[in-house]
From TrEMBL, chain A:
Membrane topology: Multi-pass membrane protein
Record family assignment: Belongs to the cytochrome ubiquinol oxidase subunit 2 family.
PANTHER family xrefs: CYTOCHROME BD2 SUBUNIT II
One biological process term in Gene Ontology: aerobic electron transport chain
Organism: Halovibrio salipaludis
UniProt keyword annotations, A-Z: Cell membrane, Membrane, Transmembrane, Transmembrane helix
Parts of the chain that traverse the membrane: 6-39, 83-101, 113-135, 155-174, 195-212, 224-246, 258-279, 299-322
Database matches in NCBIfam families: cydB
Protein name: Cytochrome d ubiquinol oxidase subunit II
GO CC field: cytochrome complex; plasma membrane
Compartments, record wording: Cell membrane
GO MF annotation, one: electron transfer activity
From TrEMBL, chain B:
Organism name: Halovibrio salipaludis
GO molecular function, one term: oxidoreductase activity, acting on diphenols and related substances as donors, oxygen as acceptor
Subcellular compartments: Cell inner membrane; Cell membrane
One GO term (biological process): aerobic electron transport chain
Membrane topology qualifier: Multi-pass membrane protein
One annotated Gene Ontology cellular component of this protein: plasma membrane
Protein name: Cytochrome ubiquinol oxidase subunit I
Keyword Lipid metabolism listed: no
Pfam families: Cyt_bd_oxida_I
Residue spans crossing the bilayer: 12-34, 55-76, 96-118, 125-147, 183-206, 218-236, 318-342, 354-376, 404-427
Keywords assigned: Cell membrane, Electron transport, Heme, Iron, Membrane, Metal-binding, Transmembrane, Transmembrane helix, Transport
């Protein structure tokens, strides 16, 4: 009765949406995480100006992700959100604070320090909470009859704390390589100094997660060590990206570290997806279990096919308009 | 006392959605006002309209920004607190709510940027088109939200299969039996809100003698508009009430405070409903008027609350009084609209200080009326979440404990109090800066391509002082 597999198409759309969000909001959250470490107030102005034109467009992907998940994979939405109830609240609170800080910092004089704090704290909190979401996804969630069973603090485990730190470090790396690409002078030099230690930290955490996961999860172990050898190309590519980042930082290549940091994220993300496929709420619920009705998926897909290309074009255009270095004085106010 | 996760979740949802709703209800009306001003400016070339439009676009930008921030929270509420409801209704509500997001996304991507930053950079016709598209876009957004909400009141076009509603007819589900009434009622409410805020602020400026020519024109426009829409809202509200009587008689019974099904029911002006005793205290009413309004006959039979068992009754006191607050404010709005007409001769509507002074606080009235109206319709549906099919208790997240719900409720109250105090304070600064400030700029640097709502307003957050 169903002419083609919409669930698979939707899995692709959601996976694409998630990585778009992670990469795009990742660097502007990263800028926020690094904010307190910046050398001076002028650098902070520059950093904020570099993300100001694009950050809210980046965050709309999250809202679309929330409702899109409800539409296409409702069970993921209705299991993950209750399981991460406290975490989701903290993430939203963090995002609200940083969003408002964005708007008010430029208009504030005496209260500027407060908005700096809100921006940095909100960004870090949101990133950490998102990292814990990833960790909980990898660990798996206890369910019975498609409903989360467990306590409110179950999502806080050594592993999710580790992934929380990992994503904060990862976003900070994105933020530092972005700043390196978008600024000059003192700010750029500072970003350059930050990038390598951050890269090492990210590699350490990602490495730890990669060893930990197959040990605790038999299914992941089998996927990597017996069934699918071709997927080893993903960690290889991720390591290649890491090497290019390291090199790019040293050789003063402006865009290279940022582009390859995105690459590092993409290949790690793909590695994660193939580890868990076809489970969307490990360890039991597959994407077909979680899917909504075929008609509902189709109804929304028709609209998205029309809108997504426009949004992508607009996004690309915005980044094109704001290409190049951000300089003091052409702040947007 | 045990903490009840259902009650706390309901309070939390009421809190975040009320906070969110006040922004769009204003921007929908304001966007149409701006489109109207731009049309006048385009056709007459009168710079007065451009001055007005520039100022109100700034206000629009700030309010729209706050609406977006508070909207992020909304898209997660169904999952965190109402997961059983979300799962059961996902096949319909998922796509419908997503379409709302997609509409807003598209709108922001394409036209909001032009409206906020494109003046003088794009041809006049394109700018006018952008103003219209933003106005239409806000309506499309509310279209989807009200389709979802109306369906929860009057579900149609779906059947229950394997614990989920399956959509059998999209048209019937979206244009469900109460949809058009709700849409019209809410659309008019948005216009009323926009018109009263503009009228209120124009009156305030006129009292201070600022930009008299432009503000007088704005006030005049609003008063003409109100003369039509304030009475129209009464009529549409009545139709909506009759529709509710057909589909949710218990809600109407609670609105009227009528416990026993009977004929010749009075319209109660005052009463203290007592749910425990299933009766009212201190009743004061006009005999037969409720029957006349609802059945167009003083002997008409009006359903009573007691027709359903106690555990299927809504909280009568809140519904009863919210309804009176809404209708009372609506009557006050009509009175102001009529007074505006009577004061037309000799331009007394903008010279009479008592009239202007009365108009200033009326800027708040529509917001209270809108929230009261939502309290009536949402509380009046209780205990049902999807009317007749799923109760609040059935829809709540099974793993949710009272402690968690209390934690997040307090958290949201704290976050919103901080954030929106800052937002409203900033808005008051934009108001104080007024039209004079708004018409001064326009030549800001290229970096204004920023296209973010707040960057359209150039007013500093604090009083003068410190470095810029």
């Amino acid at each position: 009765m169903e002419p083609f597999d919409l669930t698979l198409i939707w899995a692709g759309i959601v996976a694409f949406g998630v990585i778009m969000y992670v990469l795009m909001d990742g660097f502007d959250l990263g800028v926020g995480i690094l904010f307190p470490l910046a050398p001076d107030e002028e650098s902070r102005d520059l950093m904020m100006n570099s993300v100001a034109p694009v950050w809210d467009g980046n965050e709309t992907w999250l809202v679309l992700g929330g409702t899109g998940l409800l539409a296409a994979f409702p069970m993921v939405y209705t299991i993950m959100l209750p399981a991460l109830y406290i975490g989701v609240f903290l993430m939203l609170a963090g995002l609200i604070f940083r969003g408002i800080a964005f708007e008010f910092r430029f208009k504030a004089n005496r209260s500027r320090w407060l908005w700096n704090l809100a921006f940095a704290g909100g960004s870090t909190l949101a990133a950490f909470a998102q990292g814990m979401v990833v960790g909980k996804y990898i660990e798996g969630i206890n369910t019975a009859d498609g409903v989360f069973v467990g306590g409110p603090l179950d999502f806080i485990t050594p592993f999710t704390l580790l992934t929380g730190v990992g994503l904060v470090a990862g976003y900070a790396l994105l933020g530092s390589t972005w700043t390196l690409m978008k600024t000059e002078g003192v700010t750029r030099q500072w970003a350059q100094r930050m990038a390598r230690p951050l890269l090492l930290m990210v590699l350490a955490v990602f490495g730890l997660i990669s060893f930990w996961t197959p040990i605790v999860d038999q299914a992941v172990y089998e996927r990597w060590f017996s069934t699918l050898h071709v997927i080893w190309v993903l960690p290889a590519l991720a390591l290649f990206c890491a090497w290019k980042i390291w090199q790019g930082i040293g050789h003063n290549r402006e865009g290279t570290p940022f582009v390859f940091t995105m690459g590092l994220f993409v290949f790690t993300y793909l590695g994660l997806l193939v580890s868990k496929w076809p489970y969307v709420v490990p360890p039991e619920i597959t994407l077909y279990d979680a899917a909504s009705a075929w008609e509902s998926q189709l109804f929304l897909l028709l609209g998205l096919l029309f809108v997504i290309p426009i949004v992508l074009t607009y996004t690309a255009w915005t980044y094109w308009v704001f290409r190049g270095k951000v300089r003091a004085g052409d702040g947007y106010h | 006392m045990d903490l009840d996760p259902v009650l706390l979740s309901r309070i939390q949802f009421a809190f975040v959605v009320s906070f969110h709703a006040i922004f769009p209800v204003f921007t929908i009306g304001l966007a149409s006002f701006i489109a109207f001003l731009e049309t006048c400016a385009y056709r007459t070339g009168n710079p007065l309209y451009t001055r007005l439009s520039k100022f109100w676009i700034k206000v629009f930008a700030v309010v729209f920004g706050m609406g977006v921030v508070s909207g992020i929270v909304m898209s997660f509420q169904f999952g965190t607190n109402w997961s059983n409801f979300a799962q059961a209704t996902a096949n319909f509500l998922g796509p419908v709510l997503s379409y709302e997001v997609v509409t807003a996304f598209f709108l922001e991507a394409a036209f909001l940027g032009i409206l906020l930053f494109g003046r003088g950079r794009v041809p006049g016709g394109i700018y006018l088109l952008a103003a219209f598209m933003v106005a239409i876009g806000t309506f499309i957004s509310s279209f989807w939200i009200l389709a979802a909400n109306s369906w929860m009141h009057t579900p149609a076009g779906t059947v229950m299969e394997n614990g989920m509603h399956q959509v059998t007819a999209w048209g019937e589900a979206i244009f469900n039996p109460s949809f058009w009434y709700r849409f019209a009622h809410m659309g008019l409410a948005s216009f009323l809100t926009g018109a009263f805020v503009v009228a209120s602020l124009s009156a305030w400026f006129l009292l201070k003698g600022r930009e008299v020519e432009a503000n007088r024109r704005a006030l005049s426009l609003c008063l003409w508009l109100l003369l039509v829409i304030a009475p129209a809202q009464l009529w549409v509200g009545d139709l909506h009430g009759l529709n509710t009587l057909e589909h949710q008689p218990t809600k109407v019974a609670a609105m009227e405070g009528n416990w026993e099904t009977s004929s010749n029911v009075p319209l109660l002006l005052f009463a203290w409903p007592d749910q425990q005793a299933q009766t009212n205290h201190w009743e004061l009413g006009i005999p037969g008027l409720a029957s006349l309004i609802l059945k167009h006959d003083t002997e008409g039979v009006v359903p009573g609350i007691s027709a359903v068992p106690k555990d299927e009754q809504p909280p009568v006191g809140i519904v009863f009084w919210s309804f009176r607050v809404m209708v009372g404010l609506g009557m006050l709005m009509i009175a102001f609209a009529v007074a505006g007409l009577l004061l037309r001769p000799g331009g007394r509507y903008w010279r009479s200080r008592w009239f202007l002074k009365g108009l200033v606080p009326m800027g708040v009235a529509p917001f209270i009326a809108v929230l009261a109206g939502w309290f009536v319709t949402e509380m009046g549906r209780a205990p049902w979440l999807v009317y007749g099919q799923m109760t609040h208790a059935e829809g709540v997240t099974p793993s949710l404990t009272g402690g968690m719900a209390l934690f997040s409720l307090i958290g949201y109250i704290v976050v919103y109090a901080l954030v929106f105090t800052a937002g409203l304070y900033y808005l008051s600064r934009v108001f104080q800066a007024g039209l004079e400030e708004a018409s001064g700029d326009g030549e800001h640097a290229e970096a204004e391509h920023a296209k973010r709502p707040f960057s359209a307003a150039h007013v500093p957050l604090e009083q003068q002082g410190g470095h810029a």
